[in-house]
Specification:
about 90 residues, Aminopeptidase, 3 strands
Length: about 90
Amino acid sequence: MPRHGPRPPCDAVHCWGRGYATEAAAPVLAHALQGLGLDAVVADIDPLNAASIRVAEKLGLVFAEERYLDGALAKSYRLSAGPLSPGS
């Protein structure tokens, strides 16, 4: 028997491009904005990570700015609370 249990049904490479990240993030965003009452959620994304940028855009986050975090360039995407929030 494996030490950490059976292999999960999906490893990272086999999950790419199937919409799992978008599906998982939508209720988290809804909870952050509606359940916790945050004014906004910001995602700082490596500019070379096109898949993460697509996920952010699918979820309604919009490009806000480029900035440096710990010396690395990041693209910041923002979703503000309001009628267009996920799950509303």
